[in-house]
Amino acid sequence: MTRILADLPDDDIRWMDRIAKEQGKSRAAILREAVVAFRADGPQDWIDRGFGAWKSRDDIGDSVEWQRRERASWTRPWDVDYEEVRAEFPDLFDEEDDREHELHLAWLAQNGMSQGDGYATPETLTERRAGEGSKPKSTKRAKA
Predict the structure, then answer these.
(1) What Rg do the C-alpha atoms of the chain give, in angstroms?
(2) Residue 131 pLDDT class (50, 70, 90 cuts)
């Protein structure tokens, strides 16, 4: 193993010493681990270390249900699935959300659109692909 001399800011040295003390390792060991983690071809054992990290958490209840609720909290009044999500998690939404949803629906109707226009769904993708064969060729002329 080759020994190196490196200049690091005092803040980094204090941070490294704190980490080394917490983990019961030497400063050199922390540096070696940092280099290994920085290398693209380094080991991916962090995946194994992270797997099951929440298994002992008892403050969130069922983890799948917690995750569904967290995702639902990001639903906005103009999202296509707003009504469905609001029905499942009514406590995440209020009257202001409902008012914005109604305003959005009114705007869509006023502009000849319906909920979901502009979103790529399996149906619209199929329709688009089916129509691609019938599109006219470009009428641009080649440069002389």
Answers:
(1) 28
(2) low
CB 20, CB 30: distance < 8 Å: yes
Q: pTM here?
A: 0.47
**126/120 Cα distance (integer angstroms):** 10
CB atoms within 10 A of CB 1: 5
User: What is d(CA 56, CA 51) in angstroms, rounded to the nearest whole number?
Assistant: 12
Question: Which stretches within 39-94 are classed as H helix?
Answer: 45-50, 63-72, 82-88
One-letter amino acid of 21: K
- For 92, residues 6+ apart whose C-beta sits below 8 A from its C-beta are 69, 72, 73, 75, 85, 86
In terms of residues, how long is the chain? Answer: 144
